[in-house]
Amino acid sequence: MRRGRLPLLAMRLATPLLTLSMLGTSASLARAQSPASGTDRVAAEALFDEGRNLVAAGKIADACPKFADSQRLDPSPGTLLNLASCWEKLGRTATAWVTYKEAASAANALGRADYVATAQRHADALAPKLARITVQVTQPIDGLELRRDGMVVSSVEWGQAIPIDPGTHTIQARAPGHAEWTIAAAALEGSIVTVTVPPLEALPAQPPPPATVAAPAPPPAPAAPVAEQPPRAPGDSPLRTTGLVIGSATPA
């Protein structure tokens, strides 16, 4: 069973995709407080074994998702140790380092001093190899948003040396009413990269849309002409005229 003994890091690998913050640790500890269902535990164990078999076959990249899913279904410090080892073997040193840290915190919460010692030892060994990136902002403006590889960089990280995996990383800066700024920064193992975001170029002011003028109301239709009645002779009345018409129809 994967929880019954200290995992051999050379044999068991993988990890979920983690952010470089201890928020990941809090999330795993919160999940650990909610016991997995029997079905989830069985699936987690099967995924762990499948990942181990893939590692034995040298298919490290294929093994990592298996361990990641195992950890998601049934969190375990032992699985986290293997997750961290997986990222380390793939060269993702920063992700491996933070995962070892997460494993140490999770193990400490469960009273597993052996796991804590193993996780901390590997994290300490990786620390000197970490690449770090510092993003400096020369002119903060309202609505400024920074992204690293598509992920938002919180303002609390500006000016801080943040561990990152080796490789090329894309830094973007954007703000309402300003042109977007982008740069690609290459980080080698153990290097320190500084990216300075220049003042963003203001875009030309857009003219206001033309005002909409309401069409004039059509003139009212002319009133229908009223037919003129012929004048009546003095002393005539409608009653008397009717009587004459009726009387002329009476036979002699």
How is the biggest beta sheet arranged? 4 strands, antiparallel
CATH architecture assignment name of the domain at 23-127: Alpha Horseshoe
Number of helices: 7
| Basic shape | elongated
Averaging pLDDT over every residue, what do you get?
79
Query: How is the largest sheet built, in terms of strand order?
Result: 3-2-5-6
Strand content: 15-25%
Spatial separation of the terminal alpha carbons: 133 Å
Secondary-structure element string: HHHHHHEEEEEEEH
Cα radius of gyration in angstroms: 41 Å
Low-confidence stretches: 3-33, 238-252
**What is the fourth-level CATH superfamily of the domain at 23-127?**
Tetratricopeptide repeat domain
Please write the CATH class name of the domain at 23-127: Mainly Alpha
Q: What is the number of beta strands?
A: 7
Q: In which range does the helix fraction lie?
A: 25-40%
- Structural class assignment: alpha+beta
According to CATH, the fold-level topology of the domain at 23-127 is: Serine Threonine Protein Phosphatase 5, Tetratricopeptide repeat
